[in-house]
Amino acid sequence: QVQVKESGGGLVQAGGSLRLSCVASGSFFSINAMGWYRQPPGKERELVASITNGGITNYADSVKGRFTISRDNGKNAVDLQMSSLKPEDTAAYYCNVQGSNILWRRPYDSWGQGTQVTVSS
């Protein structure tokens, strides 16, 4: 089983910045893609940004130019640098890790418990 742990959320004023971090841990696993999702109050969970093993990134239109996803393959870690934050960025942010269990040759899709980001106007 792959465990996913996020950190770095908090309260920030509009226009400010925050950096979210995520680390995956476990045994006998490989990672294909890592990403960040968010779920605003009363809304569906949505993709914010993702990054593949090869460094190919994908961003939601609403965060392009403001958020940057980066990955450290050696540490099984992914960060999300958020700048020019807006009140509409307020949400619970979740880290997602997808890959394969090397021992059992089965795919997995693991989520962290989430970290709250609140942007005040």
Jot down its keywords.
121 residues; mainly beta; 7-stranded mixed β-sheet; 11 strands; 0% helix
Estimate the mean pLDDT confidence.
96
Q: Tally the beta strands.
A: 11
Low-pLDDT runs of 5+ residues are none
Rounded to the nearest angstrom, the radius of gyration is 14 Å
The helix-strand sequence is EEEEEEEEEEE
Helix content: under 10%
Main sheet record? 7 strands, mixed
| Spatial separation of the terminal alpha carbons | 40 Å
Secondary-structure class: mainly beta
In short:
The protein is built from no helices and eleven strands. The chain is mainly beta and 121 residues long.
Could you describe the 3D structure shown?
With 121 residues, this protein is an all-beta fold. 0% of the residues lie in helices and 60% in strands. The strands form 2 sheets. Strands 2, 4, 5, 6, 9, 10 and 11 form a 7-stranded mixed beta sheet that branches. A 4-stranded antiparallel beta sheet has the order 1-3-8-7, with no helix packed on it. A hairpin with a 4-residue loop joins strand 9 and strand 10.
